Amino acid sequence: QRLPRSHPEHPSPVDINILNITFLHPVIQLRKDRATRLLEYYDFIEKRNNDTGNAYHEEISKTLLYALMLEISDIYRNISGDRSEVTKPRQEQLTDDFFRLLTAHYRSEHNVAFYAGRLNRTPKYFSEAIRRISGRSVSDWIATMLLSDSKLLLQTTDMTILEISEELGFSSPSVFVQFFRHHTGTTPLQYRKQL
Fold it and tell me: What residues in the chain have per-residue pLDDT under 50?
């Protein structure tokens, strides 16, 4: 049985900006108590994952991973709050602003020009700046967000391909299927059946 779509009282780590923060700050220094807590989560998840005798084994594993992601999100939220008071170089600030916009709009806006326009930059300058700071193109980041979300929806909901394509802002299911196949080598339905 698939999990229901997230509701407000259970925020998704994606909703709390964990992706854009970890893209920019992949290595952080943890306080000892935080590191200990994360290691405890990891050890417990590993033990539970090996206990396949429970009828709800898969749901328990997903829930524990979700809790771990929320812990990590909280760590990054605190770090991001601390860093926001520090003046950043202009292109790094632009990249931060892009990831904030991307997190809010990737489902409806798939074009580089939208993000460049919202940040008052030409698409050329914007694309070069993002690639220079992040090592990847704006289009790659948009595709990464869409692909991650589409996989999550295929794994955790019973939404149809039509519903997912509409949810992610694709003009038609065939465009979504083509996008998914291009990035994974398989169709969304084949991907779901392999789970």
Answer: 1-9, 16, 84-86
Which residues touch 48 (CB under 8 Å, ≥6 apart)? 57, 60, 61, 64
For residue 175, give every residue at least 6 positions away whose Cβ sits within 8 Å of its Cβ, in sequence order, or none: 165
Helix 123-134 and helix 90-105, axial crossing angle in degrees, nearest 10: 100
Q: Which pLDDT value is given to residue 20?
A: 60
Q: Residue 21 in contact with residue 96, Cβ under 8 Å?
A: no
Which domains does the chain carry? 1-86 (no CATH), 140-194 (1.10.10.60)
The reported pLDDT for the residue numbered 4 is 42
Say how far apart CA 174 and CA 180 lie, in whole Å. Answer: 10
pLDDT at 102: 93
